[in-house]
User: Fold this.
Amino acid sequence: MITTILTTIAIVGGMAGFLALLLVVAEMFFANYGEVIIDINGKRKLKVKGGSSLLSTLNENKIYLASACGGRGSCGFCKCKVRSGGGPLLPTEKPFLSPDEIKDNVRLSCQVKVKEDIAIIIPEEIFNVRQFAGVVSKIEDHTYDIKELTIQLTQPTEINFKPGQYVQLQSPRYGKIKQKVSRAYSISSSPDHTDYIQLIIRRVPDGICTTWVHDFLKEGDEVSFTGPFGDFFIQDTRADMLFVAGGSGKAPIKAMLEYLDARNSTRRMGYFFGARSRKDLYLDDLFATWEKSMQNFAYYPVLSQPTEQCEWNGRCGYVMPYFDEFIQDVNNTEAYLCGSPGMIAAVVKYLVSKGIPKEKIYFDSFA
Amino acid sequence: MKETPQEKRIHENMKAGVMCAKGFLGSDTRHFHEIIETDAAHLQTLGYTREEVADRMQALTNAAFEAFMGSITLEEHLIVEYRSFRGKLTCPFAHPGGFRKGSVTLQNTRNNITLCWTPLNIHMIREHGFFEGHGSEHRLDPDILIKALFN
Assistant:
């Protein structure tokens, strides 16, 4: 009996092994897709070797779509429209796509394999995205879990971006970490400084990239990143500007305010920063400086749970009830929000209930 | 133990430095199947299903997520806080989709138990019965978890 079972297992195992080997050999000989053409926006054609993902193939050709997961299909950033040749939509893509996007042939480029000629549409701004190398010239501790890096660019030596955009910083292999990963961080410096960027980075418990930044990265180290990405930037209007942020969401708002300050902006601006306690507040002195240099700018820090040690006599609780201190005309107010999805959802709901049109609320959500 | 290619991939994903800095197995040398089976048996003796546990964790997570500016107190003895971070986490069992990068801290003031989990933990408990290995950053020992959630 036992001999029969073992023989059967051996036969089935042997057959499975043989079939697996056959598949590997077949892949080597038959899955050679040769050269294929990627048509981009109907304007540019790339001749590439088939077989890799669309994301990595574009990267090899110095076209960098946003991606925070290194092509694992987990961030949903690397979307592009595939007009033809992308194969069927995969189950790994569906959770990241809305019904409208699916209808519109939007795909995750990391999940699309380039096997045949393919026609795609990507935003023109993507052609401005570059890979940069730089040296960390300064690391500042802003709070117990937030650091700001200053990266002096070395190759290329200049970057052009809009305040509010982000880059994807690449962490190297370190310690037990056997792979490079890329993570998105908003630029916190003004685009007026083209030779360096600053990034505000909060420690993520057990995070691969932030652990590297907080525990391993030193001044003088070389780093690389791609960018700029994102469509969160200042609208060219005369409307009042209501800024709301929490935690490291301060980064893009700082870039925007520094940019506006350099232009002596006279727009009315109110910045509400929500933090739990005093130890979560940072860069207050800088915002106080801008309150002096920009006559129509006011900074409103709000603590949700100040302790006795905070010795806090300022605003407490949620940020929303304090918006009335700033908003004068809902029809002439734009809102710029950056922070957690919970905060964004609550603030958007509040502002809409106050009468601010949804299309005038711009945000960069951490989700 | 002989592993299928899929099991090998899952095992690899669980190691430190692959999907998160410290991984999902901690100092536990057991195979993840054994971890799951042991915890399932223990959960059964405690009289709860993994769905009940995940539902309770999800309800607390939702309440804390909506509060978003610090901790809230629920049912008079549960203090819950949600901290958001940019990005998403993926399931080591290769489920499609991403899970919010957030950290939920629950403090039960009745028994002074404090626990921390992520939205991914809820998914792994519900779908895979996986509470992570001993010594892992987010190991949720069923015994302690039940006391924190239901006492």
